[in-house]
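job 3f2a | input accepted
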Amino acid sequence: MEFKEILYNFFPDKQLKEVKSFGNGHINSTFKVIFKNNQQEYILQKINTTVFNNPDDLIQNHIKVQEYIKNSTSEIEIPQLYANSDNKFLLKDNESNVWRLTNFIENSYSIDVLENEKQAFEAGAGFGWFVKSCSGLNPTDFREAIKDFHRLSFRISQLDKAIESDKAKRFTTVKSLIDFYKKRENSLMEIEKLIDNHEIPLRVVHNDTKINNLLFRNEKAVAVIDLDTVGPGVIFYDYGDAIRTIGNTVAEDEKNIDLVDFNLKAFESFSKGYLQQIASSLNDKEKELLYRAPILMTYIMGIRFLADYLNGDIYYKTKYPDHNLSRSLVQKRYIELMEQNEDQMKLVIQKFKD
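job 3f2a | predicted structure (354 res):
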């Protein structure tokens, strides 16, 4: 099915002017759509059904949020899904590809790497706004897009299986790295126990808070995008994963470990923006342990990279033989730096939590 035919299902009265590849996403195929004599532009996406094997779940989760916040007066928004002529938000073509259409957020831009502290603050405000806006939704009404995506015990079990099988015969070369992660396993599992005991409450969260999942306009955050992972989770997932990416001064696969640093000023700016939005809705246990969230999420990514390295690099795309090892070593160093700054992190959270 050609683009023209796909788009006719959504807008039979519009004349197509241009469809072009858009963005740098790694999972879905994304295109910008422009019609003749029409100012509004659109985003057309082909959903990767290998990663998201039940795309209807993504749509239902998105619609729940879209409907719930449709009367929001905030300057921040989310992309709006459009129904096709059959009043469905998914379109399957004759090759079994699955498509969806949203509006394009006008005059906006995304960033892949944090450039300044103002952006960190805006990122915190944007992602904090999202969780606050979803606070009245019941997380049990949402489906997990990827089961156990952030569940630590699941990721630990994957690492244990990789260690046991040692498919790529790399165990002896990374034993000290394995020991590093294993040493921290029990203390971080205490967080999961608190989640399972409901002392850390389940919420509707974004679950993928990379800074490029925000759109900016005139240096202000104006949209939270990529809602594929929206659903049940805890505040630690969003806050922790954002700091994992925003506070790290290098790429996650930097080969020179000496360059890895923890940007405490970016951490403070993000925390200020985030907690100004949602601090009043956090319980005492969340506030007490929030400083551990970035370590938790960095740990999860570190052991995922390590497990893939032991398995022979079968999940993440790699550009050289030790690529996953480099990624895991960066996470290790970043954890060490955050552990060294734990007292400062606690003080920052204390300052903004009330």
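job 3f2a | The chain has two domains: 3-103, 117-352.
job 3f2a | closed
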